[in-house]
Amino acid sequence: MADQRRRAEGVAIRAAVLLISSAPCANLALWGGRVVHGLRFIAAAAEAALAEPDSSPVAPWHAGMSPAHPVMGSTAPESSAAVAPVGGEPVPRTDRILVLAPSVMMGTFGDQDVAARLNLCGPSPDTGRWVSVAFGGWVSPVGAALARAAAITFAERHPTPDLLGLGSGWLLLQMEIAEAVVRTERACVLLDTADSTALLSGGSQD
Length: 206
Prior knowledge:
Elements: H1 2-22, E1 26-30, E2 35-44, H2 46-49, E3 96-102, E4 114-123, E5 130-141, H3 147-155, E6 170-184, E7 188-191, H4 193-201
Antiparallel strand pairs: 1-2, 1-4, 2-3, 3-6, 4-5, 5-6, 6-7
């Protein structure tokens, strides 16, 4: 039974990695109930996003509660299924997500990051079976001084003219990842921070 569970979790992780690299968009749910659908995103390294100093507030959920888990009150274990490399090739480590959002969202942010959940789901590119991924963490606008470098990174996957509208119709958000939940019809895998960022990279933190 344990071996079957590990195999199911391994299949779920591989499906999640492939979905993250191919999904065209995701939904962003902000603490407080606001949900924005159909946002383009990329996984990015901190240096690529030119992250500003960490100003993440204390999480507004109780200790042990998982912000990524869709059922509030569920708890994430201290450790979870390890994220194994996919494809055998080394990949750059990524630890956050960049999101292109309409500029009307700027009014959502004050002087602190906002707790959020990024959700994406769809058929796995390799098997066609449904998989969903929910990342929990904190989101904030990319500062004006850092937006150009972040936009260049973003354009590698999404070469959209909307990036020319940064500061007017569009803005870039960066999400620092705390944890993730991967679901398939056969598995539900809760990942801690290290395994969640490894999931973005498609490789192992070891």
